[in-house]
């Protein structure tokens, strides 16, 4: 299984543990990640807010550079995925725009590299048997809630419905394969507050706070997510939430279940330290 | 040579504005066989028809060509006028110089006039070869098949039977009454649905002319109006037993198969059917019914408690072209007001909310009924569509919004009732294929004309009634059922059926029995004679399409009044102009 | 979710900026504005029947002056000034929930983007100034490095927004955990990136 890899800006900084755990897990599962050479930032929500042409052109540069490998592009970050999927869709459906971009980048667009989320690849391409075979430390007794946020599964017109936009289940399936106990809750696809993280932190506190409290109300031990901004918002804005809920990347829990080395480095990056929980459950 | 009269219509300026009708008349005057060529403003008018009748008498005409609009408009009119003057109607033909000449060549009057002349000449040639034909008369089985035992089917059965004709009523479930049997009180008077239905059921049971088959479906329908043959499949009460079949003859069919509601599983944002206290309107209705599963008590499915707050969500799946049905389901505004009112009557200190986009209350006393729910019953109506429903900590949470303040709203209630979209009954499209009637893109059976023929399908002899044709409420259903019954009675009041004779026939001398015409026929109107080994036409089924004529290698198969002699003469007339 | 303060149109008229007629309580309708915004956003705003399902599901609507459906209604009524001054357009986070649920397939969030861009082109000060500052510094970082360098971006954001002291503790904790690298990584293809930035920004098209 070979993919182009687009880490996105945060995977070497604010979501560094997501980056490390992604690479470790993919290597252990035989998923080869070929990082797109000299990739640029996708523009996230700032580009589409301020400059529509730039917002599509920036990810298009990455799509063009990924073509040579002729493989799908796997992305751990939901926002990067949203932007790439939008750029790819526009190239496929608007011939005038495609011509303009081909002229801009002096490259023909063959569309051989489809943008995919990491969760989609781990859940749908890998298959539960392949994962189950490698589980060495089942996450027995760990009650989790799966948190998708927005851009992994919306808008369904662009995501190809790789998971259901109102009631997604792939993450739960992976967690069950790892031996954890995903519990039902109502906040899977609610927004964490996204880019208002700094400029309207009060909104993030309301939205992420409700999600974190919802995890507590559902009786979960931790929240599991697959997006750097969601993790950061949930991890950092739990004012008024009690007890504080650890927010794990899916790849961190996979790394734990697969008994991969170096996990402590990942946990140490969190603001809400997950280690007390993991030790209490006998998982670490 | 046959004495033929040519009558050229101006049709106001529809024809005369492009075609020089006077010149056309002049050109036809001297054409061989034409003894009279004249023009008139509106041939279809009374004076126009009188002109034809008088000319037939005065000029001893043996054939008539009316150059006018499409035969679909007035062929019948002119043939009748000819018959009144003693001329066989099939000696009268139309030359369409409106749709086929003046309307499509408005830019070139010279060419249009030439084409009109040419066209009329070919029809004159056709009439020269025409035989005087007699319409076919077909026998008529005066027995009706009604598919569906809900209120529409019951009403139609009663109307037809009370006029003296036998009826077979077929219902696929194990009881009559359909969805009305699941209702509690009906708007606006809160009459018990059970009582309304009982009166109809009693009448049906007591009527010796109505035979009811429960657990029965139509397996096949063959034949044609007046002479349908239906194969019925009867299931027994036991799952293990094989079904049995029976065959019957009918003259008419009424389709009254009713509706279904869009399933909760389709509404991801409303929980997709996973939450026990988020239910649909029929489920709530059954809770309200005294003879229903809760004995008329309103209880939360999750814990059996009496709900103190209930949210009603209108337009769940209707008016949603993007994800569900684009149309309005018509009945939900009214039944929601009724359900909210009944809830308040039984739980007086409870609170009901109705989230709506519009209120559609278009019958007698309907608007007053909804207003009464708002004012007297204190139901809180909020204009705004609910975005999400979920259950948490034993409460149903609704994320909605209010249009007038523009603000999002959150309500926590004990129960949520969704007015889900009305859709055709399951299996409607498959049934339509068996009956060979059309449906629209949603599966509702199509009526022959949206304004003027609301209870007929496009297939003669098959009529429609009730929600099978489109969402509607009980009074409209009953009216439509009676209307369909009236159509059936009108059919049955005839001694026999009359069909057009301009159909295919087989010249047995030329027929070699090759059988190529049989699969060519789209109407299954042909078969091989059992011992003559010649093709035989079922005159009642034949639509005169001509596919068999094309298939026949010997030209043994011909269409009456459009034989090869006709066609070749018409071709000669066209080519002569060059 | 709290319902937030009810903001009537009348109170908005009074507190808005002093353009001519702003104190009027009666709206002047300009039907051409709808067509302009539809063509910039590529959204069929005229299909909206104001059911408010978008507002009901919008995560930040509670904090907005006008919910997304109201912005669409104001666009339809040609209330350009009101719309370009609103906080709504700046508080939209692009979660795409509106598009996912709209019965008529309208992406209200894309309309918000087109309106943000129009507001900037026409010189309107954003109702949520800090949101603009952050977006600008985010893009600035890309223009310099090809990827976002958080440290410099955050520092510039703090300085330019004037919001110097909030979240300093959070920032420190992140820094101490090694989540905010000091040195930026600059990609090689900067010429191309800068070329993309120099093209005129415009709405969908």
How is this structure best described in words?
The complex is a heterotrimer of chains A (284), B (578) and C (205). Chain A has 284 residues and is of the alpha/beta class. Chain A has helices at residues 16-28, 44-50, 52-66, 78-93, 95-105, 118-125, 128-134, 156-159, 170-177, 196-199, 201-217, 228-236, 250-257, 263-267, 275-280, and strands spanning 2-5, 32-35, 73-75, 115-117, 143-147, 181-182, 222-225, 247-249. Chain A has a four-stranded parallel beta sheet, with helices on both faces. A four-stranded parallel beta sheet of chain A has the order 6-5-7-8, sandwiched between helices. In chain A, helix 1 (16-28) crosses helix 13 (250-257), helix 2 packs across helix 3 and helix 3 (52-66) crosses helix 4. Chain A is globular. Chain B is of the alpha/beta class and 578 residues long. Chain B folds into four domains: 4-134, Rossmann fold, CATH 3.40.50; 144-258 and 425-492, FAD/NAD(P)-binding domain (3-Layer(bba) Sandwich); 263-422, FAD/NAD(P)-binding domain (3-Layer(bba) Sandwich); 503-559, Alpha-Beta Plaits (2-Layer Sandwich). Chain B has 15 helices and 30 strands. The longest helix of chain B has 21 residues, at 109-129. The mean pLDDT of chain B is 95. Chain C folds into two domains: 28-121, Fumarate Reductase Iron-sulfur Protein, Chain B, domain 2 (Orthogonal Bundle); 129-198, no CATH class. Chain C contains twelve helices and no strands. Chain C is elongated. Chains in contact: A-B, A-C, B-C. At the A-B interface, loops of A face strand 20 of B.
């Amino acid at each position: 299984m070979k993919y182009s890899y687009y880490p996105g800006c945060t995977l070497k900084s604010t979501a560094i543990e997501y980056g490390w755990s992604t690479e470790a897990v993919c290597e252990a599962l035989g998923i080869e990640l070929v990082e797109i050479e000299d990739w640029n930032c996708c523009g996230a929500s700032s580009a589409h807010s301020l400059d529509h042409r730039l917002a599509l052109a920036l990810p298009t540069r990455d799509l063009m550079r990924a073509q040579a490998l002729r493989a799908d592009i796997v992305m751990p970050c939901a926002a990067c995925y949203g932007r790439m999927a939008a750029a790819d869709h526009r190239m496929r459906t608007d011939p005038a725009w495609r011509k303009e971009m081909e002229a801009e980048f002096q490259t023909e667009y063959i569309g051989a590299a489809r943008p995919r989320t990491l969760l989609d690849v781990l859940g749908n391409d890998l298959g539960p048997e392949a994962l189950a075979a490698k589980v060495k430390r089942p996450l027995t007794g760990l009650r989790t809630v799966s948190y998708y946020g927005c851009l992994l599964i919306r808008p369904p017109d662009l995501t190809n419905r790789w998971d259901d936009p109102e009631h997604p289940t792939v993450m739960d399936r992976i967690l069950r394969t790892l031996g954890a106990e995903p519990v039902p809750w109502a906040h899977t696809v609610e927004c964490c507050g996204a880019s208002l993280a700094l400029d309207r932190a009060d909104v993030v506190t309301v939205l992420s706070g409700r999600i974190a409290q919802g995890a507590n109300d559902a009786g979960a031990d931790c929240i599991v997510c697959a997006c750097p901004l969601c993790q950061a918002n949930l991890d950092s804005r739990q004012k008024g939430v009690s007890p504080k809920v650890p927010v794990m990347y899916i790849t961190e829990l996979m790394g734990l279940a697969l008994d991969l080395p170096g996990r402590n480095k990942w946990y140490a990056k969190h603001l809400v330290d997950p280690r007390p929980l993991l030790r209490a459950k006998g998982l670490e | 040579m046959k004495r033929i009269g040519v009558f050229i219509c101006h049709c106001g300026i529809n024809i005369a504005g492009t075609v020089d009708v006077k010149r056309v008349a002049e050109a036809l005057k001297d054409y061989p066989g034409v003894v009279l060529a004249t023009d008139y403003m509106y041939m279809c008018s009374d004076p126009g028809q009188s002109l034809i009748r008088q000319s037939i008498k005065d000029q001893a005409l043996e054939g008539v060509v009316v150059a006018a609009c499409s035969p679909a408009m007035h062929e019948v009119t002119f043939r009748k006028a000819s018959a009144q003057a003693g001329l066989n109607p099939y000696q009268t033909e139309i030359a369409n110089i409106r749709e086929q000449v003046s309307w499509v060549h408005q830019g070139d009057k010279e060419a249009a006039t030439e084409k009109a002349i040419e066209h009329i000449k070919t029809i004159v040639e056709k009439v020269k070869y025409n035989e005087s034909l007699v319409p076919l008369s077909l026998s008529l089985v005066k027995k009706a098949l009604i598919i569906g035992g809900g209120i529409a089917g019951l009403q139609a059965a009663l109307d037809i039977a009370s006029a003296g004709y036998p009826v077979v009523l077929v219902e696929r479930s194990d009881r009559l009454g359909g969805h009305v049997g699941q209702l509690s009180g009906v708007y606006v008077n809160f009459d018990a649905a059970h009582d309304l239905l009982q009166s109809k059921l009693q009448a049906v049971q007591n009527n010796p002319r109505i035979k009811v088959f429960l657990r029965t479906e139509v397996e096949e329908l063959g034949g044609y109006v007046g002479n349908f043959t239906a194969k019925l499949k009867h299931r027994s009460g036991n799952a293990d037993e094989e079904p049995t079949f029976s065959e019957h003859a009918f003259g008419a069919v009424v389709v009254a198969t009713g509706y279904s509601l869009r399933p909760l599983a389709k509404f991801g944002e409303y929980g997709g059917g996973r939450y026990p206290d988020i239910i649909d309107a029929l489920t709530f209705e059954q809770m309200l019914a005294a003879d229903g599963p809760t004995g008329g008590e309103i209880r939360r499915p999750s814990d059996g408690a009496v709900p103190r707050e209930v949210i009603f969500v209108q337009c769940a799946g209707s008016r949603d072209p993007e994800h569900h049905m684009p149309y309005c389901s018509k009945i939900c505004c009214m039944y929601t007001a009724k359900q909210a009112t009944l809830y308040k009557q039984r739980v007086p200190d409870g609170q009901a909310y109705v989230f709506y986009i519009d209120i559609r209350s278009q019958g007698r006393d309907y608007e007053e009924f909804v207003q009464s729910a708002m004012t007297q019953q204190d139901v809180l109506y909020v204009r705004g569509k609910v975005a999400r429903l979920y259950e948490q900590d034993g409460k149903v949470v609704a994320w909605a919004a209010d249009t007038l303040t523009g603000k999002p709203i959150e309500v926590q209630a004990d129960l949520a009732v969704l007015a889900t979209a009305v859709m055709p009954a399951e299996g409607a499209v498959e049934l339509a294929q068996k009956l060979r009637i059309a449906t629209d893109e949603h599966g509702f059976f199509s009526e022959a004309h949206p304004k003027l023929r609301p209870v007929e399908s496009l297939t003669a002899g098959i009529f429609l009634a009730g929600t099978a044709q489109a969402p509607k409420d009980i009074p409209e259903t009953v009216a439509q059922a009676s209307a369909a019954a009236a159509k059936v009675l009108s059919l049955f009041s005839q001694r026999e059926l009359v069909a057009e004779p301009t159909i295919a026939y087989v010249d047995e001398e030329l027929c070699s029995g090759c059988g190529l015409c049989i699969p060519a026929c789209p109407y299954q109107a042909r078969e091989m004679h059992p011992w003559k080994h010649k093709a035989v036409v079922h005159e009642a089924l034949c639509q005169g399409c001509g596919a068999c004529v094309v298939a026949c290698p010997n030209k043994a198969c011909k269409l009456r009044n459009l034989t090869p002699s006709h066609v070749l003469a018409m071709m000669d007339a066209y080519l002569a102009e060059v | 979710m709290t319902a937030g303060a009810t903001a009537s149109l009348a109170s908005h008229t009074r507190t808005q900026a002093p353009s001519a007629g702003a104190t009027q309580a009666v709206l002047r309708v300009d039907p051409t504005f709808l067509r302009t915004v539809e063509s910039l956003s590529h959204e069929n705003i005229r299909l909206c029947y104001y059911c408010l399902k978008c507002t009901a599901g919008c995560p930040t609507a509670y904090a907005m002056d006008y919910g997304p459906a109201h912005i669409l209604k104001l666009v339809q009524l040609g209330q350009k000034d009101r719309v370009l001054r609103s906080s709504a357009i700046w508080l939209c986070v692009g979660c795409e929930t509106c598009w996912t649920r709209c019965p008529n397939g309208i992406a209200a969030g894309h309309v918000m983007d087109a309106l943000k861009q129009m507001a900037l082109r026409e010189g309107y000060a954003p109702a949520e100034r800090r949101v603009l500052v952050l977006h600008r510094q985010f893009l600035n970082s890309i223009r310099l490095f090809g990827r976002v360098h958080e440290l410099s971006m955050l520092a510039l954001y703090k300085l330019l927004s004037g919001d110097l002291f909030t979240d300093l503790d959070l920032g420190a904790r992140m820094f101490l955990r090694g989540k905010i690298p000091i040195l930026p990584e600059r990609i090689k293809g900067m010429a191309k990136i800068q070329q993309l930035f120099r093209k005129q920004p415009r709405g969908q098209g």
